[in-house]
Amino acid sequence: MRLKDKVAVVTGAGSGMGKAIALLFAKEGAKVVASDLNENTAKEVVTEIEQAGGQGIAVAANVALEKDVTEMIDAAVDTFGTVDILVNNAGIMDNFTPADKVTDELWERVIAVNTTGPMRAIRKVLPIFLEKKSGVIINNASVGGLYGSRAGAAYTASKHAVIGLTKNVGFQYANEGIRCNAIAPGGVNTNIGTTMTEPDAFGMGRAMSGSDNNPRAGESEEIATVALFLASDESSFVNGVTITADSGWTAY
Q: What is the CATH architecture assignment of 7-243?
């Protein structure tokens, strides 16, 4: 029960890594706010949590909309009284679109979900954390935020920005009892591919050119254990860093 009585908000909690994180956090004693664009899948996750004896609520939220992000955090406070842990997990791909084909619409949509959404959620929880001198933020960054061609231009830029934001928040609020870290998963078996429509052949070919060096794909539950470590007091001396979880792919 490493997260006993903590209140955790998890975005993109309806499936994949977000779902695995929400379920594991609840198992470890957290009261979970499962947020997802799809309210039905979020409710299904909460049902699983409750059937296992845990506590949780489902919140429908599009993290690209400031109103939804605000209401998500407000729902956590209204229901459970506070927020202790924020997991910015929700994200979308960009069809492996290379820079010469990026439209403003694609760029703005990817940045809105992958970068602006986490920033707004962090901005919303910081006053809560500052008041009690305690709080943990975990951002799902992807190895696409560490290297140049694991996806298209917009996704790569969005995740590099998330890692920069992680470092900035982690250092600036370190003396206030607040920690901010990121996870950079490699290839993980999730349904994020459903956020793509028509992958660009050139961009995908370039981005996947190193895929043969990937030892294996990961499972969502393996990323959830990293998130649990970062959320718990076991990582009390870990702040402002990005933990890569990719079976050694990027070590090549």
A: 3-Layer(aba) Sandwich (3.40)
Phi and psi at residue 160, to the nearest 5°: -60, -40
Helix locations, the chain, DSSP H: 16-27, 39-51, 66-80, 104-111, 117-132, 153-172, 201-207, 220-231
Structural domain boundaries in the chain: 7-243
Per-residue pLDDT of the chain (252 residues; tens, 9 = 90+): 999 999 999 999 999 999 999 999 999 999 999 999 999 999 999 999 999 999 999 999 999 999 999 999 999 999 999 999 999 999 999 999 999 999 999 999 999 999 999 999 999 999 999 999 999 999 999 999 999 988 999 999 999 999 999 999 999 999 999 999 999 999 898 876 677 778 899 898 888 888 888 889 899 999 999 999 999 999 999 999 999 999 999 988
Helical (H) or strand (E) element with 55 = strand 55-60
- Active-site residue flag, 252: no
Choose the catalytic residue: 147, 155, 173, 252. 155
Rounded to two decimals, the pTM is 0.95
Q: Quick check: helix, strand or coil at residue 112? A: helix
